[in-house]
């Protein structure tokens, strides 16, 4: 396994030159566009690493299935899905064009920005600070990393420039999907996106999802099985934005990408995989990450289909 990872990583490193780091959040331009790293955590708890697996990156959209699980634990599925849909959008992650044309007017799914902002607004807590602490605590628990924290510069950079998300959030309050202070909700969302991780952190979260919500080692049921099933299903249908169909064909496992360059995979009953490669393709997915996952899936017959 170790040999295979190293070999596939070096084989696919060239792809990083064909992508570009995200620029619409200015601070993300400082990411190392040549980096490519991977960590696998299998269900037995074995850990394998290759390449630039120590590279730090911010969760960005990789955070979306995790806050979805917290909102589902806090509010129940009925309440959550009254406010956000279950269908792929076929549009870019930050698109807002369908918000006004669909009826009832609610974001199509929790993996696009509009849906994720709506989900984040549902997290319980007496104050926004408490809500954020609850989000951070869950991320720390699932990743088995008590030291996770936000990258302040990335957070401030998105807060300063995130006008597209801001406009969607105000629209969502107008149509009654969001309640409360829009700026505080956005602040919470920007903070969740700015949580800084490495490949192993997201591989461990992927492994917990792959293991039906049960923590490896301790056997603790951290997230109810049905909720992990919902999260994984969204990862299959919408996790790679408007490239989810292609990814399902080429790789065939539940996965979530983010514009920080991360991709988190949960291979049911087998393993969690964390990949980093900040050079992105036109749809915002890690260029090198996609290629290495495609190879690993073939070599290890990971596709669920
Ligand atoms: N696709 C992403 O990773 C998007 C996350 C980013 N924070 C945004 O809201 O635009």
TrEMBL record:
Membrane-spanning parts: none
InterPro entries the UniProt entry points to: Beta-lactam/transpept-like, Glutaminase
Domain of life where this protein originates: Bacteria
Record: residues binding substrate: 61, 113, 158, 165, 189, 241, 259
A GO MF label: glutaminase activity
Coiled coil start-end: none
Pfam families, A to Z: Glutaminase (PF04960)
Subunit structure: Homotetramer.
Name of the protein in question: Glutaminase
Protein source organism: Geosporobacter ferrireducens
Classification lineage: Bacteria, Bacillati, Bacillota, Clostridia, Peptostreptococcales
């Amino acid at each position: 396994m170790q040999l295979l990872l190293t070999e596939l990583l070096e084989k696919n490193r060239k792809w990083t030159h064909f992508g570009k780091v995200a620029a619409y959040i200015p601070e993300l331009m400082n990411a190392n566009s040549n980096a490519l790293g991977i960590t696998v955590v299998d269900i037995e708890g074995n850990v394998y690493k290759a390449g630039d697996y120590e590279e730090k990156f911010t969760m960005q959209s990789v955070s979306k299935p995790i806050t979805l699980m917290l909102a589902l634990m806090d509010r129940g599925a009925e309440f959550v899905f009254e406010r956000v849909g279950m269908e792929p959008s076929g549009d870019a992650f930050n698109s807002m064009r369908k918000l006004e044309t669909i009826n009832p007017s609610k974001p199509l799914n929790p993996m696009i920005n509009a849906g994720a902002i709506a989900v984040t607004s549902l997290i319980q807590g007496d104050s926004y600070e408490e809500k954020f602490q609850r989000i951070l605590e869950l991320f720390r628990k699932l990743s088995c990393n008590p030291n996770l924290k936000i990258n302040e510069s990335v957070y401030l950079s998105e807060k300063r420039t995130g006008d597209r998300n801001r406009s969607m959030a105000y629209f969502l309050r107008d149509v009654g999907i969001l309640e409360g202070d829009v700026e505080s909700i956005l602040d919470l969302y920007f903070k969740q996106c700015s949580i800084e991780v490495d490949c192993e952190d997201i591989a461990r979260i992927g492994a917990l999802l792959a293991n039906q919500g049960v923590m490896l080692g301790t056997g603790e049921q951290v997230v109810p099985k049905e909720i992990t099933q919902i999260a994984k299903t969204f990862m299959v249908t919408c996790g790679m934005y408007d490239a989810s169909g292609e990814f399902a064909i080429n790789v065939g496992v539940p996965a979530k990408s983010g514009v920080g360059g991360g991709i988190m995979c949960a291979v049911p009953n087998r393993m969690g995989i964390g990949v980093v490669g900040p050079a992105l393709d036109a749809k915002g997915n890690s260029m090198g990450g996609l290629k290495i996952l495609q190879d690993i899936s073939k070599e290890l017959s990971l596709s669920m289909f």
